[in-house]
Amino acid sequence: MNLTVNGKPSTIDGSERLNVTGLLAALKVAQAAYVTVELNGEVLEREAFDATIVKDGDAVEFLYFMGGGSAAFPQSRR
Amino acid sequence: MKMSREYRLDTLLIHGGFEPGPAGATTVPIVQSSSFAHDTAEDLEDIFRGRKAGHVYTRINNPTTESLERRLALLEGGISAIATSSGMAAITLAVLTIVRSGDEILSSASLFGGTFSLFRDTLSNYGITTRFVDPSDLRAMRDAVNERTRLIFVETMGNPRLDVPDLAALAAIAREAGVPLVVDATVTTPVLGRVKELGADIIVHSTSKYINGTGSAIGGAIIDCGTFDWRRESYPHFEPFVKKFRQFAFSARARKLIHKDLGACPAPMNSYLLSEGIETMALRMERHCDNALRLAEYLAAHPKVAWVNYPGLAPSPWHETAKKQFGGRYGALLTFGLADKAAAFRCIDGLRLAKNLANIGDTKTLVIHPASTICADFGPDEKALMGVSEEMIRVSVGIEAIDDIIEDFAEALGAI
């Protein structure tokens, strides 16, 4: 499935139906408990994450309110 | 692996929010760095825009502090937490996130002196008015709500009055008024009860007290329960945050604006000390409460003691409410009265184990004469509202052997 995630092309392997909760896990989104998800320009309520299915061609935006949020103790690529 | 949210409170105190650090460390690493480098300009742009997780600057966020914040949110059943440099910073930031110039706070009159001063003296200079009402008088509380009220503020146990407001009833008043209930739960901690379940929308703590436990660090925290709907005409300043962050609107406005701009962040070392302290809080609170009840009973029977105020004693007018709200535990603060101020001073001077200082929630037993110290700047009427009198001593009962605590008071009282 091809998506646009935060403005960039992204491919999710597998043919199973994927809800937003599954998408957060598949993309290993850091601090998922604190992220706001915008799907095709609409901000989703957290209660809707399980019931909302992501489709091929969708545009997804993840937004953190913590001034960046965090991956705990991240390692630099360098 | 079980999600941490499924664990019981005693386990969450130790494991909640912890994520393994470098080299398999089992304590939270102290990330003593002002700022954080990123690989590309785009990475840092994404972090600043909130599109990507990452750290920027310790005033904004810090890995050590975030670990503490995750744990505090789990303990209170909140959706997020913000750690601050002190309890007063937590109250200031929580309140300023909600109110603007021209707005009003409806507050309990039975408050910690610092909070009373913040509301009465400091915020009033910026056009924010506070109405102080006895929180046990529910009709008076309801009657004090007006069209400018933007929040109701109360302590779980008023310090030092030690009254115990009916939080569920106050939450009902707040719901009816369409304003959030902000609760300072410092004195009871989540160990005695999660006040979210009684209707708190925002919880504040001085983490310097029982959460730290040993008097080694100053800190505060704000917990967003995610229960208040900010989509109301009376909160237009929340509109952009509701639009963008929905349930996190309060957290976002607090974090991205007020906390960021006022800069009351904790030092990473203090976040570490608080994370260490919190692990033993359940055990400590059990001993604190047991010791406080024993000391209260001893003092109540002492011929030189005029009166004892402790919610755990049946004569306290707040005993039943405290019992209902906090599972038969009544905290570790008590006050008692002697003949007069001179007798109170002689008693404090005669104590050898208990320390005479301005703090509560330490492992050590602490005493203070509030009227001449922490409440000295208040007039007679205000002192009366706060439950402070000249002959009164406040005790923060520690976790030493109770027989040693009682002997210390017995000797001091005997020498009066």
From TrEMBL, chain A:
Pfam families: ThiS. SUPFAM superfamilies: MoaD/ThiS. Gene3D superfamilies: 3.10.20.30. It comes from the Bacteria. NCBIfam families: thiS. This is Thiamine biosynthesis protein ThiS. It comes from Geobacter hydrogenophilus.
